[in-house]
Amino acid sequence: MKKFVRKANEILNNKSLMKKLYRTLGILAIYRLLVFVPVPFVDIQNLMNGTLEAGAAGGFGYLIMLMGGALSNFALVAIGVSPYITASIILQLLSSVIPHLEQLTEQGEVGQAKINQYTRYLTFPMAFVQGIGMVFIMNSMLGGAAIDTGNLGIVVLTAFILSVGSMLLMRLGEVITEKGISNGISMLIFASIVSGIVQQAYTSLTTGNNRLAVLFFMLAIVLVLILLSIFILKSTKEIPVIYARSGKVQQSSILPIPLNPVGMVPIIFAMAFVSFPYLISQLITQFQPANEKLMAIANRVQINLNIYSQSPGRIAILLYIIFIVAFTFLYTLITFSPDRISDNIQKRGGFVPGIRPGKATAQYINSILMHLCLRGGLGLALVAIYSYLLNRIPFITDIAQTLGGMPVVVAGSGIIIIVGVVQDLLNKVDTELVMAKYEKY
């Protein structure tokens, strides 16, 4: 307790840190206000009633909750920062293929600034396309009662407004990164998820039959997920490295390789790939083509590949797991180069005990990465699908019936984001406090 009070006093007495915290909180407050600003052309009354019914039915409950209420109001910022995240990931993938982008990644801050500029350019068209998809998805979810999708001009203008909202969020996130504390985009996502948790927890506690049991059940779920997320994010495999000069051992160090080297990226990609056929099927059924076979395929896809549902089909869950593990391998191979790590160790006169320098060291590091990718990918998949599994475990469903419903607090991917953001925020605060001590002395 004394340590906590001492740390709190250090933070409160650090004027520079407090200014950054105030700026961050202020921008997050602006973001939460934007959640309640609906786009034009929407029937608000039907929208509010429809989203509540859809959330209660479980069809889009997770999607509504993870957006922190933005979808419930069809807000200006309804599509969030996902276009920016997708654009960033695409450019990271292209940087390993396009020589010009690869050169920019090696130029430090100047190159990164140029890549960020390309990311902004790519974000807007992706946001526009996603905005069109969001219009049709929301209208389909509400039985066509929210917006007139038969008017192309209204659809395009609504998508444009949603794109502007997404770009505005991107800028707010950049301001947090530059003048606030921690990564701005992550903080905005964090705010959405925490808001969704509060809303869903309040609903579960006020509508459940046994409030104390509901609260205990929710806390138990969150605790298990937090512990599992911390294990996935913090676990590392340590490879000893020895550095020698003139044939004598001078120092030794550790090369840490995390169990999950790529964070949330595999889940984001997997969700996009699994949901893409479902989104296309939504558009097909919306336009009602005369081709009966195409309509039959679209209906089958909606039944089997609705990953947004509280209880998706087995095919959707299986594909989700496969894609998460596959993208864990793919993105790790792109972001981690065993050959480059091996060359850096060799250039500094180091070697791994029992392993020849050069190619043998690269093969050794690559084999460890492959083992970690499998375990880390399966761990990510477990956290991502936990809420789906709960609905398929007999004794859990019995408990849910006793409580009056399944009080799922948040998707497992959201818990990983919360743990990661809190960890990064604490690290940034500690760094600011250490820098203040150095400046003082």
Based on the model shown, name its key terms.
globular; 17 helices; Preprotein translocase SecY subunit; 441 residues; mainly alpha
Would you mind describing this structure in some detail?
Helix 2 (15-34) runs antiparallel to helix 8 (152-179), helix 8 (152-179) crosses helix 9 (184-207) and helix 13 runs antiparallel to helix 15 (359-390). This protein has a three-stranded antiparallel β-sheet with strand order 2-1-3. The protein has a domain at 1-205 and 414-441: SecY subunit domain (Preprotein translocase SecY subunit, Orthogonal Bundle), CATH 1.10.3370. With 441 residues, it is mostly helical. Helices cover 73% and strands 5% of the residues. The chain is globular and about 80 Å long. The protein starts with a helix and ends with a helix. The protein contains 17 helices and three strands.
Q: How much of the sequence is in beta strands? A: 5-15%
Q: Stretches where pLDDT falls below 50 for ≥5 residues?
A: 52-59
Total number of helices: 17
What is the helix content? Answer: over 70%
- Judging by the overall fold, what is the CATH architecture of one domain? Orthogonal Bundle
Named CATH topology of one domain? Preprotein translocase SecY subunit
Strand element count:
3
Instruction: Return the string of H and E elements.
Output: HHHHHHHHHHEEHHHHEHHH
Could you give me the name of the CATH homologous superfamily of one domain?
A: SecY subunit domain
Strand order of the largest sheet: 2-1-3
Q: Any idea what the shape is?
A: globular
The multimeric state of the shown protein is single chain
Query: For the report, how would you describe the main beta sheet?
Result: 3 strands, antiparallel
